[in-house]
Design brief:
alpha/beta, Rossmann fold, six-stranded mixed β-sheet, 6 strands, about 45% helix, about 10% strand, globular
């Protein structure tokens, strides 16, 4: 297939541990020519909401250490108190996407205070309970002191991700969404892709296609247990999701439902502020695991494993590029 148009923005969606991050890592290992001719992508620039989930849990850890009530989770192995924070995460991604395009460099006096301000503003935008804005002065000061080094590193990593130019590149945005095990469809807001996709900016929605990594919820839970390393919870490839979260937030997802309801092949329809966005979807079938080898060092990747993964990705992505 001759590629005449590269995918501008690729939404990489799936249940946890399905292979999303491994797909991103593999894409980043390819040459620009391979990306363009075999996947319909430019060299990839990548965004992910997981670092913010990790920082939310770190905020709660430090609040507990300060003998203050936690604000995001009842415990480190439990889901959100307020599910609207799934939208809070998307607002942060919207900001990161805009900053990536503008090249905006933040240089706040305190990186931790800057993060708390961003979280408070994002919560206000989606109507989440304003738990960050309502932190006591004592709790906020304690968080700023304890999290400054970690937040500064996260901010520096964000800036380091900016390429010299986005011309000819593809932005890959990764996140996972779902709903409680056994749920019927449609999933109610703020669960599922229908809600979170509707909180993406119009700019992102107008430029995006979806690559959905297809695994069953049971396989997602198995692979989550397999990849988890307790000492690497901040890692994209090796963090584990607690079982209560896997069952409560990721026991199912609504991608198949959205595809069925759209009335168009390989398309989902997302409505935002009265506007209708039709997003093409490519489905990469990972129900038989094609991605776990990517967690190893690249020099250990077997050629046969790479070929199988590449073929599946190429089929899904080239169809999106041609649409």
């Amino acid at each position: 297939m001759t590629v005449t148009k590269l995918i501008d923005t690729l939404l990489l969606l799936a249940l946890p541990a399905s292979g999303k991050s491994e797909v991103r890592t593999y894409m980043a290992s390819l040459t620009p020519q391979q990306c363009r001719e075999e996947l319909g992508l430019g060299p990839t620039v990548q965004l992910d909401d997981y670092p913010y989930v990790h920082l939310m849990r770190r905020i709660d850890e430090e609040l507990a250490a300060l003998s203050q009530p936690t604000i995001f989770f009842a415990a480190q192995d439990k889901p959100f108190f307020d599910g609207t924070n799934w939208g809070t995460l998307i607002q942060l991604v919207n900001e990161d996407y805009d900053d990536l395009h503008s090249g905006a460099i933040a240089d706040p006096p305190s990186a931790a205070a800057h993060l708390l301000d961003r979280l408070a503003a994002a919560q206000a935008k989606v109507g989440a309970k304003p738990v960050v804005a309502e932190l006591s002065k004592e709790a906020r000061a304690g968080l700023v002191e304890r999290l400054e080094k970690e937040c500064a590193a996260q901010l520096a990593e964000k800036h380091a991700n900016y390429p010299d130019t986005l011309e000819g590149k593809t932005i890959v945005i990764e996140f996972a969404r779902g709903g409680p095990d056994g749920s019927s469809m449609p999933l109610p807001a703020p669960y599922g892709y229908a809600y979170s996709l509707s909180t993406l900016s119009e700019t992102i929605l107008s430029r995006s296609a979806v690559l959905y990594v297809w695994v069953t919820p049971e396989e997602s839970r198995r692979k989550n247990d397999e990849r988890a390393r307790p000492d690497e919870q901040g890692s994209i490839l090796h963090h584990g999701v607690p079982i209560d979260v896997m069952l409560g937030d990721y026991g199912c997802d609504d991608m198949a439902y959205l595809l069925e309801q759209s009335g168009k092949d390989d398309t989902i329809v997302i409505e935002r502020d009265g506007k209708r966005f039709e997003l093409k979807v490519g489905r990469f079938d990972n129900r038989v695991d094609l991605t776990s080898f990517v967690r190893d060092e690249p020099e250990q990747w077997a050629e046969d494993d790479k070929a199988k993964l590449h073929a599946g990705l190429s089929s899904a992505c080239l169809a999106l590029a041609a649409s």
